[in-house]
Design a protein that fits this description.
Blueprint: E1 12-17, E2 47-52, E3 55-59, H1 65-72, E4 79-81, H2 87-90, H3 96-103, E5 107-111, H4 113-122, E6 140-144, E7 149-151, E8 154-163, E9 166-173, E10 176-179, H5 187-190, E11 198-202, H6 215-225, E12 229-233, H7 241-247, E13 252-254, E14 260-262
Parallel strand pairs: 3-4, 4-5, 5-6, 10-11, 11-12, 12-13
Antiparallel strand pairs: 1-2, 1-14, 2-3, 7-8, 8-9, 9-10
């Protein structure tokens, strides 16, 4: 039986970045995708912001967080959900300080135990108050998550997946689920992804990869779960947006930097 999820509002997602760890264009690469004039082929590192009940939940702090925020007009972050501690998902961590300055308060950061441990070691200074003002550095409160929790009236469901052999965390937020850097989704986690309006899932390329889903593998998961809508992120420079759109089945879409999607309907 499908779980009865609380749905106080319909989340909206802005794709801040949709590329893999190198970003696209890749330094020193002259491939067709890296030289493409299609703006959808310019992919910064994967990150997103989900707006729910009037609050902005940032998922990961990609290396280009500052430029992503400027490009999309993001000027408020109310909480941060971390999927894992790889550099392309944490490289913009220090830019959180500007959101402290704008809000004049500490920011809560949520992470699974393994990710929380790395963040404490790598960014220890962000969890200790050092200045009598906001903006000099990030001022954060780290919350280690072990299961579902509530934020701003919305239940957040952590969804454990495997990035190769590394356990990382996706998130279900109402009718929306965001899964990045997965190669394997355990059966127990697939059960958490039933009855979705929108599934965001990583798909690196057409060929198989040891730590990321391919287009075909992602399509198989989407076919099984049957969300109303599915978008793929974390693409490499091996495939253009246009080509990737041809390679995936009908009903599966390729996200791009700056795309805004509401769970109630089409992109705004």
């Amino acid at each position: 039986m499908a779980r009865d999820y609380t749905r106080p509002s319909m989340p909206e997602i802005t794709f801040l970045g949709t590329g893999t760890s190198n970003g696209i264009p890749v330094i020193g690469c002259q491939c067709d995708v890296c030289r493409s004039r299609d703006p959808r082929d310019r992919r910064s590192r994967t990150s997103a912001v989900v707006r729910v009940n009037g609050h902005n939940l940032l998922i990961d702090t990609a290396t280009e967080l500052r430029s992503q925020a400027l490009a999309t007009g993001l000027d408020r972050v109310d909480a941060v959900l971390m999927t894992h501690a790889h550099a392309d998902h944490t490289g913009g961590f220090d830019d959180l300080r500007r959101f402290n300055e704008l809000s004049q308060q500490h920011l809560p950061v949520y992470a699974d135990p393994g990710t929380a441990s790395v963040l404490r070691e790598r960014y220890a200074y962000t969890f200790v108050d050092a200045f009598p003002f906001y903006g000099g550095k990030p001022d954060l409160i780290l919350h280690q998550i072990e299961g579902p929790f509530a934020l701003f009236g919305q239940e957040i469901i952590p969804v454990p997946v495997l990035h190769g052999r590394l356990p990382i965390t996706g998130y279900r937020i109402g009718d929306l689920a965001y899964i990045t850097d997965a190669k394997t989704i355990p059966e127990s986690s697939l059960a958490l992804l039933e009855d979705l309006d929108l599934l965001v899932l990583n798909a690196l390329r057409a060929k198989s990869h040891p730590t990321h889903l391919s287009f075909g593998e992602a399509a198989e998961i989407i076919e099984r779960l049957r969300p109303r809508r599915a978008l793929l992120v974390h693409l490499s420079h091996e495939t253009s947006h246009e080509e990737a759109s041809r390679l995936v089945p009908d009903g599966v879409e390729i996200a791009y930097d700056g795309l805004v999607v509401a769970t109630a309907g089409a992109p705004s």
